[in-house]
Every structure is written in C-alpha cells, then in structure tokens.
Design a protein that fits this description.
350 residues, alpha/beta, Quinone Oxidoreductase, Chain A, domain 1, 2 domains, seven-stranded mixed β-sheet, six-stranded parallel β-sheet, 25% strand, oxidoreductase, ADH_Zn_CS, EC 1.1.1.1
C-alpha cells in the first residue's frame, strides 16, 4: 500500500481538482479501504449541478466497493465478525452513534450525530469521506458488509445506496407475494425495485417515460412497463413505490392504488416544490403513505445477499464502462436510456 491518497476534490459548481493527501492511519473503529470502483449516484450529479446543497470543498462519492488496506482496533462487519486486511467490502452511507433516541428507535438513518459518506467537508473532522479517491477512511459507526467475489464491482458499488434503499422501500411496502406493485421511475433504484419486488413474488408494473428503460424493466422482473400517463392499472395496485421524485408522479400515486393500498415515497430527495393532496381520497380509500430516506444496516446486508444469490439479474450491465478518476467531472451528467450509472475506477496507487 502506498503512502499517498489521490482524490477528486469538488470545489463547487462543476469544478473538481485532483489532489494528493497523506494516507491516514486508522484509529479505533476506523478502516482504510482501497477503492476498486465507485459508481456515480444521481444525487451527486444533482449536488454538482446545484439542484441540492452540499458542503465544498469535499470528496464526494457514496457508492463504492474496495478492499481493506488498514484496520483500527475494534472493527467488525455488520454481523459482529472481525474483519481482516484484504477483505472486499461495501459500507453504508450513514455513520451513526447507535446511542441517541433515534438510533434506539430504529431510525439510525436520522441519527442526531449523523455523518454521511461522501457528504462531509474537506475542512471538517472527516475529510476523506468520499469514494471518488484511491482510498477512503471509514468512520466509526459505518456498517461494513463483506462482498463475495461472485458479485461484480459495479453491482457491489451501487448496493451501498440504490439497492440498500430499495430494500428499505420493499420492507416499508409490506408483504409482496402475489401483490400488484407499481414502480414509478426507472433509474437505478427503480430497476432494483422491479427485480426485488418480482423476486419476492409481486406482479410488477413499471412506469417511466423512457422506452429503453421500460424495456430494461421487463428484463428485470416487470410483467408490464408503460409510460407514466398510461391508463390507471386495472385492477388497481396494492402497492406503489415512487422513485422518480417527479411532482406529477407523486400527485398521481394515491390514485393508482386500491382500497387499503400503500404508497411508498422515496424519490423526492431534492427540492421540487409541493404537490396537491386530496385528503378525502386518502381517508375514504384507507391509503397509507410512508416516506423512506436512506436505510438501516440490515438493508445493506440484504442488498449484498440479493446480489450474491442466483437471480440472473445483471446490474453491472446497466453501469457504464468506468472512467479514470481524473475524468470524474465528465461523469457528472444525467444518465439516459440503458445507462443507469456512470462509474470511475481509481486504480491502484503508490
């Protein structure tokens, strides 16, 4: 292992600078991971494009996979087993205290002392928090999950945000066997949701304006894929999982579910204004609306287990060929069609 870290530092707006830092020595509960691949989550694109706030200068990147290069004392995986140098791992977006009232209630994603991977300022106590770097220092309170070698890097990396969040969404949706489920929005989260819901026995209808993504949805478990303005499903859905964040889709969601149905909102993570709500329809139709943001440690472990199972879903196929770390700025653009994630491969340094 070399003695330097190369990282892309986000300076604000669309500006990045490739900089070099001393490789940190991990303290108690900390881990240094050499990053093999990082995928570019849409939320990072929104941050760089000014659609959501973010501290800068900072090292972005919260979807990544790598191998442990150095360990502090007391580091264990999600199941409490000790980790070793060379273990291939992914890690959670959230570093939590585990002791506050929210953590104790099972809402650790909203910990009162929350820190977030790839969201911390370079001038703060956790400067090397992001995956767009040759190495990342993992903070105490992060969840680490071992990744089997059968899982490709591109699939493993996105599990730390997209797939783990979907696991939280399907848990919020309840029992899915033989349920009629609408997935609204077919980015990476939507595609993951189609696959997981179908694997759990749901009858899936996918909705998105992009015809290429509708075709992908059918490959990833959807029985039907239609534009967002298609006629209401008949019969109506038992569950709708909204992942686009589009105001029209959020407004329409309660109309598409049956009596006693459930609407899970997870795509509205950037300011896009308010939407009208018909409370009488919610009340008379016994509709439950629940929000999901980030996930709990168990959801990351479930995501990796899903990828390691023989489902036949090739998520790596919808990730672009990785670029060099030096070209990260060029990857901060909206994806389209059959490309759901861009990626960078920092490569081995030193």
């Amino acid at each position: 292992m070399g003695t330097k870290v190369q990282a892309q530092v986000w300076l604000g707006a669309g500006e990045f600078a490739l900089r070099e830092f001393d490789l940190p020595s991990p303290g108690r509960g900390e881990t240094v991971v050499e990053v093999d691949l990082a995928t570019v989550c849409g939320s990072d694109v929104h941050t760089v494009r000014g659609r959501r706030p973010g501290p800068h200068p900072s090292v972005l990147g919260h979807e990544a996979v790598g191998r442990i290069a150095a360990l502090g004392d007391g580091v264990v995986d999600h199941a409490g087993a000790p980790l070793s140098i060379g273990d291939r791992v992914v890690w959670s977006v959230t570093a939590v205290c585990g002791d506050c009232d929210r953590c104790r209630r099972g809402h650790s994603a909203k910990c009162r002392r929350l820190l977030k991977t790839g969201h911390e300022p370079l001038t703060g106590p956790w400067p090397l928090s992001g995956g767009y770097a040759s190495h990342i220092l993992l903070h105490p309170g992060l969840t680490l999950v071992r990744v089997p070698d059968v899982v490709p890097d591109a699939s493993a990396a996105m599990s730390a945000c997209a797939l783990a969040t979907v696991m939280a969404c399907v848990e919020a949706a309840g029992e899915l066997t033989d349920r009629r489920v609408v997935i609204s929005g077919l980015g990476m989260l939507g595609l993951c949701a189609c696959a997981v819901a179908a694997a759990r026995g749901a009858i899936v209808e996918a909705r998105d304006p992009d015809p290429q993504r509708r075709t992908l949805a059918r490959r990833f478990g959807a029985a039907r894929a239609v534009p967002p303005d298609a006629a209401d499903p008949d019969p109506a859905a038992d569950v709708l999982i909204e992942l686009s964040g589009a105001p029209d889709a959020v407004t329409t969601a309660p109309r598409l579910v049956d009596i006693g149905g459930r609407v899970v909102l997870a795509g509205s993570v950037a300011p896009r204004g308010t939407v009208p709500v018909d409370p009488e329809h919610l009340v008379r139709s016994l509709i439950t609306v629940v929000g999901v943001h980030n996930y709990e440690p168990r959801h990351l472990a479930e995501a990796v287990a899903f990828l390691a199972a023989p489902t036949g879903y090739d998520f790596a196929a919808v990730v672009a060929e990785p670029a060099d770390l030096a070209d990260l700025g060029d990857q901060m653009i909206e994806t389209g069609g059959a490309v759901l994630r861009r990626a960078v491969r920092p490569g081995r340094r030193g």
